[in-house]
Every structure is written in structure tokens, then in C-alpha cells.
Amino acid sequence: MRRTDASGKPLPPLPPKPRRRVRAVSPLPMRDGVSASWVALPAGPWARFEDFFVERFPLVPRADWRARMSLGEVVDSAGGPVDPQGHYRPHLRLWYYRALECEDDIPFEEKILFHDEHLLVADKPHFLPVVPTGRYLQHSLLVRLKRRLGIEELSPVHRIDRGTAGLVVFSLHQQTRDRYQALFRDRSVGKVYEAIVPWSEGVELPPVRRSHLMDDASFLRTREAPGEPNSETHMELVEVQAGHARLRLSPVTGRKHQLRVHCAAMGMPILNDDYYPVLRPEGPDDFTRPLQLLAQSLEFTDPVTGQARRFESERRLDFPQSAD
């Protein structure tokens, strides 16, 4: 039917409704807290399936891929096993389990602070990544919780750095996940962090730090640069003790490493930061030197239930011990 206004004048057609993304359904079940991953096969020169996997994932030996395929651990979207010697065919989606032969242990435990039918809030320890990354798989917050609760659709709706401790919010169902993610995208969440930084008498802490942040030459880091501010952090001095201060930091924006960069740029880098102001050589974790940054509280209106939510971490940052 043609649309018209009150006078009968034709109105332009409505724009088409956005197409909903169809979530790919894994033919492989969750295994030990790890959901199957998938890869779309591009056009390319590979003769066999195993050739593609060896080139795409160079840290996994060819013999391992052959063994996984022979055990039926690499399948197509219908669940059919992939023959390692089978002729390569582009445009397929293949599913597989991620695995690590050797994984570093993280000897600290997370705590579930809240869990209902839609939402879970966990209190993450330092050093534990939120999701599998690099040399961490079983020792990631997501896999630990999925293994513990058996909820395959569990997914974080925001992230904090591996070195940061504190609150992480998870959605339990794919159907409502975007509504929780939208809270963080739309800056509808009140976020408060705490940090321990070096402190000198007479320093004046600005109430707000605004700056333009961009990727450093090293992708690992972020830096301040000239330009229109795209980051904003509200700052408050909480207490001072023996040359260090506890700061309350409330980020308005959520740029990569924002709080760490803002503190370092003011000459007060967060205690035990291996990235700012100087990137230290990569090495084993020193569990005696956790980054003194804590995601302390979150506050928002639950988009599913309409309830006001406020969560506080049970962890606490400690001032360094004096030498005497």
C-alpha cells in the first residue's frame, strides 16, 4: 500500500529493514568449556584442506591437524568430518576446537557476584584474560565459567585488560546479548575504577582528563596525540599513603588502555604497569606485581528486566609496603 501524508500527498518509501545477522550454529558441542571455532575458506592455492590449516595456523604442526581431522574434530557446517587429504574447496565454513599443547597456569580464582536467567557478573582476578587469547585458553575467564556452569551461549558484553582486576558482565543468551552490549556502546553504564599511582606533595589532580588517543607504532600500546579529544576520564583523589595515592577513575569513553595512558601522561603511571610509560620486555608473569588497577563498580538499568543494577568488586588494591 502506498504511504501518504494527511493531505494525501505521497510519502517516500520507508527504508528497508536492516537484515538481522544469522548466528552460525556450531555442529560441534562445547568441550571442556571451549566452544568450537569456525573459519571460512577463501579462494587460494591450497591443494588439500590440511595445507590451508597449516598455513593459516602456523603454530600447530601438520601432524596435529591430521590427527584432529582423523578424530572428527574438524567438520563442515553439517557436521561431516573433513578428510585431511581431501581436495581443498573454497567458500566452505569449517569448525574446529582450539587447543593449546602447553598453557601457563593462572593461580587465582574468579568469583561470581550475580547470576540470574539473563545476566552474570564475575569478579576477575589480575592476570586472567577475559576470553581465550594467545597462550591462554582454559585459563581465561570465559572458559572457566563455561566449564563451571555448562552455559554454551555465555558471552562477555564488554572487556577489561588481562592485567586489570574487577567486574566483568556476561550475557547468558544470544537473544538478549545485544541489549546488554548496547549499554556499553551507548555509554549508559556508570563505571568506576580504582588505581594506585606514585604521588608527590603539591600535585594538583585535574578533575577531568581529555585527550586524543591513537594506536602507537607498537600496536600493543596507545598514545596521546594532537587532535580533537576522543577520550575522557574523571579523576578523584581518594587517599595518600607513603608516596602513593589511591585514585578513583570514571571513564566516560572506553578507549584501549585509556586509564593507563591518562595516568602515565600526567606523570603518575599506574603501579606495576608493564606498558606505560615504558614498554617492558615480555617475560613470565610476576604474580607479586599485579597491575594496580581495579574495575571497582558498575551501575546501569537492566534493559531486559528494567531493574536498577549496581555491582561492586570485593577485591581491593593495596599500597606498596614501605622499605623500613
Structure description:
- By secondary structure, the chain is an alpha+beta fold.
- It has two domains: 37-96, Roll (Structural Genomics Hypothetical 15.5 Kd Protein In mrcA-pckA Intergenic Region, Chain A), CATH 3.10.290; 111-312, Pseudouridine synthase, CATH 3.30.2350.10.
- 14% of the residues lie in helices and 26% in strands.
- It contains five helices and 14 strands.
- 27% of the residues are buried.
- The model has no long low-confidence stretch (mean pLDDT 92).
Provide key terms for this protein:
324 residues; globular; Structural Genomics Hypothetical 15.5 Kd Protein In mrcA-pckA Intergenic Region, Chain A; Pseudouridine synthase; 5 helices; 2 domains; single chain; alpha+beta; 14 strands; 3-stranded antiparallel beta sheet
Structural class: alpha+beta
Number of strands: 14
Strand content bin: 25-35%
CATH class of the largest domain: Alpha Beta
The profile of the biggest β sheet is: 11 strands, mixed
Rounded average pLDDT: 92
SS element count, helices: 5
The proportion of residues forming helix, as a percent range, comes to 10-25%
